[in-house]
# Entry
Amino acid sequence: MKRTLYLTAAVMLLAGACAFAKESTLIDFTLLAADSVNDENGNPTENSRTVMDYSVAAGATFTNDQKSLMKTSLALPNWEVVLNSSAKTTQAIALSQVKAAPVKSDADVPFAGNNVMGVRVVFPTWNNNANCKIVPPFDIQAYEPLAGRDENGQPQDQTDEQKGKYLFEDGYGLVRNVGTVKSIAVTTMGMNFPHQLYVLLKDSDNVERRYYMGNLLFDGWKTLVWNNPDYISEVRTREIRVYPIYPRGIPLVKFAGFQVTRDASDIGDNWVGYFKDVKVIYDLAVLTTDRDIDDEDLWGIITTKERARQANEMSRFGNKQVNRYIEKQKMATEETFSASLNEGGEGNAGSSNGQRPSAE
# Structure
């Protein structure tokens, strides 16, 4: 009787292990609307939840008012298009960009009326392989604590509901407690381009991998799915691996961007695409993350490592952003020349067509 009970319990345990695969939204671009940090015209420029302050990398020569402007976030216009060497031309660098693309309110999609990610890339027109990456303005931080932001992007004290949660979870680029990734899905709008689409993910060791989603040779909205060809559904044929839970940390995945490749034989010039979200189906790394003892609160090992990594990343990211800020301040803002003629339209030294005045 006891043996039968043990066997039944073992079977239920194995069945339960197979049933804990989970679906989560890795990143939802409709959540990245600009809603804080207004510009000089009163228009919001940053996404309040994901604001990061890079003034820590600025020198002492900047005033507090200048440092208050040194912020960025995952707001869609802040995302970058990185071209490979074969695609880098002056025109391509200038015109390739990311924008917030509003979906019509009467569109036949669940996210009608929201903004999605719109991307324009200028590929070479000659026969040459080329590719681009659409990447966030900074590396998504795995252990940044969740906290509210005011209208200027300044962090506020954590509430009781926010404690123990992380900034980029729940559709902002981070999923924790990820074991084996079973499937990845991208909701995108095709424009009948033959280009190939990849999703870029980073794991808890900061190793980046790319996943082939298929081509964009279709019209309208479609969900492209990657299924793990090495995923083993039968528990008895799996190789069981047990990893230390602490201080290695709970495994996770971070969104690192998209990659679009253009074959030399395919059409070049402008490519335009739209993205709504990225979802993942995965096995849980551990069944529960609620432990009897708060290891990290006691030892602080992961926090120390992550703060060092974050400080290094913010320093590199901050230096780049500060240099961009300085360059923006040096840019010419005049659109036209100031008037050199009198109100009557005549000058003292010559005529407007560049010809010498005739002698009487």
